[in-house]
Amino acid sequence: MTGLIGWLRSCERLLSRGERCCQVCAGRIMAGKRRLGMLGICQGCAEGIPWIHLSELTCARCGRYERCPDCEGSSSAASFVQSRSAVRYNERMKEWLAAYKYQRKESLRTVMGGMLLHAYHLHKLPPPGQRLHDGLSDRFASIPAVREYVTFVPLSAERCAERGFNQAEQMAAELARLIGAPLLPLLRRNRHTERQSSKSRHERIENMKGLFELDAYAAIMLAEEAKRIKIRLYVIDDVYTTGSTMSECSRVIRESLPVEVYGITWAR
Ligand SMILES: [Zn+2]
Ligand SMILES: [Zn+2]
Questions:
Q1: How many angstroms is it from 243 CA to the middle of ligand 2?
Q2: Which of 91, 128, 149, 208 is the most exposed place for a label (fewest CB within 10 A)?
Q3: Which domain does 22 fall in, by range?
Q4: What is the Å distance from ligand 1's center to 45 Cα?
Q5: Residues 44-72, buried b or exposed e (16+ Cβ, 10 A)?
């Protein structure tokens, strides 16, 4: 009996100190590390996250952290305003994404969705080197009343059936919850495409043409809303590679709707 009481008391002490398991490695989150606890991960896992910092951004448009030939000279009215990513896609982050997508490690859903908040905050800050009288920085100096919506890059029906979920949709749902914005399933993928990873930038762009369409109901709703207030739409995806997916999503949206498109990806 005393053994049982002792065990219950130690459980109580553990719970009262707010200790719990890391959502990535299952290690214990030490008491007093509440800041790390927000993502539900331990100090070791948190220290291994290669966050992209504002000071590193070299390309104001796509948020690249090195010279950017993709955006130089590309200016189109149908384009996204800018895109930001939370982390660099290094080996560790590739492991996290693979565990989430292919091993269905569900606990990563809230961790990775929560990490998008970093990219969301990067959107709100003027990129380094932008002076206040630059056109770009004017957007930040006097941000007009806007309504924010969150949407996501869709999977094909085949891929969704194979995997059981769309990681971009799940991460988008988490971000929408955190920023208090509605999640809108605006885009549809109208055909299945082979994996893009082995393709060149030109092949990716060609492969993307006509790939997405708008959900009619969501589009009408957004068009009505846009008559009353400026809309900022965040398009969520897991990884930004060449920007061809984000560009094509933006083109399809901007073709029909007077909204500003901002990209947010977990990694790049
Ligand atoms: Zn951990
Ligand atoms: Zn760029």
A1: 8
A2: 91
A3: 2-46
A4: 4
A5: ebbeebeebeeeebebbbbbbeeebeebe
